[in-house]
């Protein structure tokens, strides 16, 4: 599969390190910025049909059995695919050129899970993979969301043993942000950022993507209790992430570890996962923002209180692989930024259709989202065929750790090239966004990690800061025998 990976946290410097000594050619082509003008093209609906007992119905239906409405306006079905079209051929190893079959993205959530829960999550993920055939039924990749980073630890593969091997090498991490309530805001943003990056890196891949998110996801928050200056940007960001998930054809399944035996009430996510928003805005009228809403919106599901993560993963895989694909071209409605509610009614009242709930219409009067513009600029930078050296980074060393299957990269940057901001106590700080990508011989990304690095100076006098010795950035990325080069991008 030719993966068009779009790195979320990268910009102004591209540095390629040859791992095997071979000279790598430059990636060709111009990056295409993501677009959310869904009203100007076909809307794809991946639809799971369930009978009264909740079992998928995979045969005997035609497009005449489905009625699609958008904001109560009937829509003409443009194309129709039955579930039997969504399977890989036995000879399809790492290829899925037409995007007919779904792909699976397993996310291990270290950021929002208790330390003891993550050990259980990893054990259940191993149980799930152990029960799979050696050649997986769908292309699968494995990601980890941590305190400071989102890491792609294994790119798309159908080799079960490759996933088991990297799973065994994921080190335990103390989730200090999950343990401290003062980090709630950061966890929300990092969790949303992870969904956004997954959507961006998969937009170049055709077909349906199923995220199996193992952990609680970002904490929920009710924006009614926030000042308008904080609530409005958060809701706008939630709307943006919603459209990115819809545009990338991503379905989110969230699996909580264990039972909530010490929790006397439901969380926001659990409550929202059971609520039909009707024709209302997904994140209104109560203003709840949480992973339960995202799961509902994408046609996925939030699993909780089952203490059976590997079983939940199997259920999610079944729901996400036995589906019909319908498309339509929206007509009617204004470009006013409002929520567009999608409904599918089955001709047989004994059947129920599960799919994405809707999207947000474009609003030409709305101010451009600076975060979206920034992401597009960063994508263009990392996919450009020329180097950028505004930060004047220098490579100090590359340390290979074959036993741990990692490469440690040590970089240096001059303090005078950073943007320092004042903080309490007469100090200053500067933050860098760092992305690393391990590439194979075709320059496909087989491993990826994005993280932040923050430096502190004991003075606010920039002339004194400029005279300090170069600062060191020490970052590690997992590698594999497929890795031939490492690309680093820093903003």
Question: Short description, anyone?
Answer:
This protein has 491 residues and is an alpha+beta fold. The chain has helices at residues 115-130, 160-168, 184-202, 228-247, 268-273, 291-297, 309-321, 370-383, 462-466, and strands at residues 14-18, 43-50, 66-70, 73-75, 77-81, 103-109, 135-145, 149-159, 209-214, 221-222, 250-255, 288-289, 301-303, 324-328, 339-346, 352-354, 358-360, 394-401, 406-413, 421-423, 427-439, 445-457, 471-478, 485-490.
Question: What does the model show?
Answer:
This protein is an alpha+beta fold. The chain has helices at residues 115-130, 160-168, 184-202, 228-247, 268-273, 291-297, 309-321, 370-383, 462-466; strands at 14-18, 43-50, 66-70, 73-75, 77-81, 103-109, 135-145, 149-159, 209-214, 221-222, 250-255, 288-289, 301-303, 324-328, 339-346, 352-354, 358-360, 394-401, 406-413, 421-423, 427-439, 445-457, 471-478, 485-490. The strands form five sheets. Strands 1, 6, 7, 8, 9, 11, 13, 20, 21, 22 and 24 form an eleven-stranded mixed sheet that branches. Strands 5-14-2-16 form a four-stranded antiparallel sheet, with no helix packed on it. Helix 1 packs antiparallel against helix 2 (160-168), helix 1 (115-130) crosses helix 7 and helix 3 (184-202) runs parallel beside helix 4 (228-247). 40% of the residues are buried.
Quickly give the structural class.
alpha+beta
Oligomer: single chain
Terminus-to-terminus distance: 29 Å
Whole-number average pLDDT? 80
By DSSP (H or I, 4+ residues per run), the number of helices equals 9
- Rg is 23 Å
The proportion of residues forming helix, as a percent range, comes to 10-25%
Shape designation = globular
What is the percentage of strand-forming residues? Answer: 25-35%
Poorly predicted tracts of residues: 1-40
The major sheet is characterized as: 11 strands, mixed
Q: How many strands appear in the DSSP assignment?
A: 24
